[in-house]
Structure formats: C-alpha cells, structure tokens
Amino acid sequence: MADNVVPAPDAGNLPIVAAVDGSEISYQAVAWAAAEAELRGCPLRIITSYAITVGQDPRTVYGAAEMAGLRRDGERVLSEALRIARHAAPDESLEITTELTFDLITPTLLGLSKQARMLVVGNRGRGAIRRAVLGSVSTALTRHAHCPVAVIHGLSESEPGSSGKPVVVGVDGSENSLPAVEMAFEEAARRKVTLIAVHAWSDTTGYDLPVVGWDGIRETEDVLLAESLAGFGERYPEVRVERVVACDTPVRALLEHADGAQLLVVGSHGRSGFSGMLLGSVSTALLHLSTCPVLVVREP
C-alpha cells in the first residue's frame, strides 16, 4: 500500500507564520508555533496588524500622533510575543522574526500562506464577540489558506510533544484525507508519541441503537483502515499506531479521542466533499468544538 503515501512538498526553509493581536489566546498560539518551529527546525515569523476596519487605512484615517501610538502598541504586542516565543522554544538557533503591518490581517496571512509551512492562529481574537467560538480570521484561513492551518484553543498544550499525549487523525478512506494522514504521521514522529487513527463507520446518527452485526462490520472496517495506513506505517516505522473503528459520527468519534490528545489533524473535507470545496462540515464542527489544537490540512 506504499502508493497511498502522498509525497510532502519540498518546504525548503519556509517559515511557520503566527498571527498575534494582543489577546491571551493569540499569545498561546505564538507559544505553540514557536515550539512547533523548534521541532521542525524552521524559522518562525510573528506578525500583527493594526488595520482598523475593512476599507479603511489607518494611514489616512489617523494623524501622525495616532499612527505613532498604534505603532507603539503594535511593537509592544510583538515584543511580548517574542518573549513568549523564546520562552516556549529556548533553542537560540531558532530564527524568529517579527513584523508590524497596517494592512488587513486576513488577506495578508492568505498571501503569506503561499510561502509558509503552516499558519498558526488562536480560535478567536480580542475583536471576537465573547460568545463566538471561532473568530473571523481563523475561519477565513481554514477555508482559503494555501498551507496547513493550526487553530489553537484556550485549553491547548502550549508545547507540542511535552505532554506525551497522542496525536489524533481522522481517516475516512478518501483521497482527500491522505494529506492529513501524512502530516499526522509526521507530527507523531516528531513528538515521539502514539498516533490514534480514528475511522467512523457511520456518517449519520440515530438514537444510539445497537447496529446489527456490528462485530463483523468492525472487523471488516478495521482491515480497511489498516490497509489505508500501511504505506504510512512503512514510511514512519517508529510511530506506534492505535486504530479505532467507531460506530458513530466522525465528529463525536474524533472529539472523544481529542479530549486526551495534544493535536487533532483533519483534512479540509472528506469523502463527501468535492473538488474546490472550502471546508467540510466535519472539519468545521471540530474547529468549533475541540479543546485541543486542530490542524487543518488541505490537498497540495
């Protein structure tokens, strides 16, 4: 089954890009991104924006004094972000750069995603409504970015690999899920932790009624799951894989295992998706409901 393996693109020295806005969750995202960059041995680029609203440029709306104040505030945020990054990743060889822009953050990050290994953001920023589970920036990036996007939640681990908790990946047997499976193996290998591969047999849910012949179905589905992982297992023999076949919806099955995980990896859309689809219903639900970091991987 080695032909299942999706070759990883040559990332060269592409950076991980983390967005920060001064909120606590964005600083947690920076810490996670720094530790991830240290694990990967790649640069970290931290960026913040002080654009006001869509269609407004602070350089024309504000005077010189106000602009200077915005710049000082932005530099303060970046200084704190740099301090947090250095604390999370103390390796002095890690290259970290910071950038203050007055361009709108979402289109800026989408542009940077074309030459980035990964974008890392908090699930909501200081501009988000308190009741909002997912912010506008993280939503837009997971739908439109050209590279994987990690969305960090408030209860996430700040240091990848430090907890020994497993990495969880959703496997539905579709071509769309292969890039996510590949990256999940990479992440588990870097962290030296177990990979839990979850395959949900049913896309629908009833009233938790028992399924007739479930034992036989589970055995058959487990064989199919093992076959779909075989090529990756050969490529990453050091990764211990735990296969899970659940008679449940993908969202509930993945959330159950994500509760005890340090990272949940999902494809941008699964077997029910179609070419050009922005983000599937399963991925969207997990971004809203998961408490651990969620890494969304779309097809190259």
Mean pLDDT: 81
Q: Shape from CA axes?
A: elongated
Q: How is the biggest beta sheet arranged?
A: 10 strands, mixed
Helix and strand content put the structural class at alpha/beta
Instruction: Tell me the series of helices and strands, N- to C-terminal.
Output: EHEHHEHEHEEHEHEHEHE
Structure description:
With 300 residues, this protein is of the alpha/beta class. The protein has 2 domains: 16-152, Rossmann fold (3-Layer(aba) Sandwich), CATH 3.40.50.620; 161-297, Rossmann fold. 39% of the residues lie in helices and 17% in strands. It is built from 9 helices and 10 strands. It has helices at 24-40, 58-61, 64-88, 105-112, 136-144, 178-191, 214-235, 250-258, 281-289; strands at 16-19, 44-49, 96-101, 118-122, 149-152, 167-170, 195-200, 241-246, 263-267, 294-297. Strand 1 (16-19), helix 1 (24-40) and strand 2 (44-49) form a beta-alpha-beta unit. Helix 1 (24-40) crosses helix 3 (64-88) and helix 4 (105-112) runs parallel beside helix 5 (136-144).
Question: Secondary-structure blueprint of this entry?
Answer:
Layout: E1 16-19, H1 24-40, E2 44-49, H2 58-61, H3 64-88, E3 96-101, H4 105-112, E4 118-122, H5 136-144, E5 149-152, E6 167-170, H6 178-191, E7 195-200, H7 214-235, E8 241-246, H8 250-258, E9 263-267, H9 281-289, E10 294-297
Parallel strand pairs: 1-2, 1-4, 2-3, 4-5, 6-7, 6-9, 7-8, 9-10
Antiparallel strand pairs: 5-10
Provide tags for this entry.
300 residues, Rossmann fold, 2 domains, ten-stranded mixed β-sheet
